[in-house]
UniProtKB/TrEMBL annotation:
Pfam families: adh_short (PF00106). InterPro entries: NAD(P)-bd_dom_sf, Sc_DH/Rdtase_CS, SDR_fam. PANTHER family: PKSB, RETINOL DEHYDROGENASE 10. Gene3D superfamilies: NAD(P)-binding Rossmann-like Domain (3.40.50.720). This is SDR16C5. Belongs to the short-chain dehydrogenases/reductases (SDR) family. GO terms for cellular component: lipid droplet. One of its GO terms (molecular function) is oxidoreductase activity, acting on the CH-OH group of donors, NAD or NADP as acceptor.
Length: 299
């Protein structure tokens, strides 16, 4: 009971104090694997962590984008390895993971970041895209984690990071498959963190990141809600700085912006119909109405 109160107090202090005042771990020379490093959050995070002297292992299906990220890292003499891998294929994940272990060694920090979005109403979503959302946004997390967690547990040293979404906490219309995959990713991380903690592996950490929309291009056409000062579309650099702080301070969950903590708590307390009214009032039921997503080469 006393310990619970202690952790609540620590949580409050951590939430109030600016990240720069919190004690941070060193990640120098840590081997960090980031999936979806060929653009957006994955690319910016890779560059940030390489500047902190981590050795980067970049995975993406987009070879060109992945190489571009690596080039940016090599420009400041960062150490980086690239692998082209389709995360919707379990066999490719396992074979590439074996290759990484042979060529680079054990991974210390795994960031499950790659993601896809269909962006259509449920009945208009083609089966293939629904399956893709589930395989890239969550099933891949099971396979990468199965490949890299054992050595972390063995050494009692490591960190698993999942870039989920606020759409993994609250259902949004026009995002049924995306929300389902992100809810699953959040659930996977919550169970995993309990499993690691009950195994007494206090040196192995988990962080689940749940941001609202970010201006990377993945959600192009996503509309501002009625109160953008409370729920703004986030800047990539801001999100990445917060993710790095969360990794360095072993923060278990990061919701962005802060209003997401409050909205999630309210969802748990409110009757469903009242929640839906609040959703409509905030304008979050129409944010996907003009969704285009990332333009493809044929656009
Ligand atoms: N952009 C947002 O508004 C937003 C908000 C919340 C959470 N997120 C999550 O953040 C993560 C990063 O998103 P982003 O905005 O940087 O998007 P992005 O489209 O810029 O990057 C996603 C990367 O994943 C890669 N990828 C897609 N399918 C793949 C596959 N089958 N195999 C390997 N790589 C694959 C893409 O090539 C791309 O480089 C995603 O998981 C996304 O769901 C994004």
């Amino acid at each position: 009971m006393l310990l619970t109160l202690y952790y609540i107090l620590v949580g409050i202090i951590k939430a109030i104090l600016p990240a720069k005042l919190l004690p941070k771990k060193s990640v120098t020379k840590e081997k960090v694997l980031i999936t979806g490093a060929g653009s957006g959050i994955g690319r910016a995070l890779a560059i940030h962590l390489a500047k902190l002297d981590c050795e980067l292992i970049l995975w993406d299906i987009n070879e060109k984008g992945n190489e571009e990220t690596a080039e940016k890292i090599k420009k400041f003499d960062g150490v980086v390895h690239t692998y082209t891998v389709d995360l919707s294929r379990k066999d490719e994940i396992y074979s590439t993971a074996d290759k990484v272990k042979r060529e680079v060694g054990d991974v210390n920090i795994l960031v499950n970041n790659a993601g896809v979005v269909t962006g259509k109403r449920y009945l208009q979503s083609p089966d293939g895209l629904i399956e893709k959302s589930m395989s890239v946004n969550v099933m891949a997390h099971f396979w990468t984690t199965k490949a890299f967690l054992p050595s972390m547990l063995e050494k009692n040293h490591g960190h698993i990071v999942s870039i989920a979404s606020s759409a993994g906490l609250v259902g949004v219309n026009g995002l049924a498959d995306y929300c389902a995959s992100k809810f699953a990713a959040v659930g996977f991380m919550e169970s995993l963190s309990v499993e690691i903690a009950t195994a007494g592996k206090e040196g192995v950490h988990t962080t689940v990141v749940c941001p609202y929309a970010i201006n990377t291009g993945m959600f192009d056409g996503f509309k501002d809600c009625r109160f953008p000062s409370i729920l703004p579309i986030l800047e990539t650099e801001y999100v990445v700085e917060k993710i790095v702080d969360a990794i360095l301070t072993n923060q278990e969950a990061l919701y962005l912006p802060r209003a997401v903590y409050l909205l999630t708590a309210m969802k748990g307390l409110m009757p469903v119909k009242a929640g839906l009214l609040l959703h409509k009032f905030f304008g979050t039921t129409s944010v996907m109405d003009e969704f285009r997503g990332r333009p493809t080469k044929s656009d």
